Amino acid sequence: MNKKITLFLVIALGFITISNAQHLKRRAYLGAAIKNINDSTAKSNQLKSTEGVIIQQLYEDGTAKKIGLQSGDILLLINGKKISKRSDFNQIISKISEDDIIDFTFSRNKKEKTLKGKVIGYKPDKYEYADVIYDEIPFENGYLRNVIIKPKGIEKCPVLFFIQGYT
Asked: N or C end: fewer C-beta atoms under 10 angstroms in the chain?
């Protein structure tokens, strides 16, 4: 009898966990500081053009470092899309989420290389004096994300929602 109850509880807990899974993934965390390649950067790195962006610095726990990119690498393509300048880079990265597969084509020591790996998402926010609640609600044909920062120890507090793009 105890085995049946335990099995029922495990299955019920599994359904609850699945039903509470979020549909909206976290944004991609590349973990790299990049800059455009201007004429002086191209000259000092003996580059033929100013196409691409150069990685200035890598941060711990970022996708770029995990995959194997290095400071000084020149990113040329992400997922087959050309990067001419930083705005191209930002536009491409903005459409990538955690757990997506990312493919970097870059130049290192004048040799073109490619690295591929799984994207790491931004870590959830944490505060010493507040709880952060991530949730979502169905809306039209998709979902709206809720991020609520609630002071610890306060049961009822006012909430103000800003819904982007909705008028």
From this structure: C
> Does residue 90 share a domain with residue 62?
yes
Residue pLDDT tens, the chain, 167 long: 555 554 444 444 444 443 444 566 788 889 999 999 888 888 887 788 888 999 999 998 899 999 999 999 999 999 999 999 999 999 999 899 899 999 999 999 889 999 999 999 888 888 898 888 888 888 888 887 778 888 888 888 777 767 666 65
Q: Are residues 141 and 111 in the same domain?
A: no
Q: What is the pTM of this model?
A: 0.69
At a CB cut-off of 8 Å and minimum separation 6, what does 79 contact?
92, 96, 102, 103
Tokens 């997922």 correspond to what residue?
79
Distances (CA, A) of 94 to 28, 78, 91, 104, 121: 8, 12, 5, 15, 12
Residue with tokens 């966990």: 17
Q: Phi/psi at 156 (nearest 5 deg)?
A: -115, 125
- Please report, for the domain that includes residue 109, its CATH number: 2.30.42.10
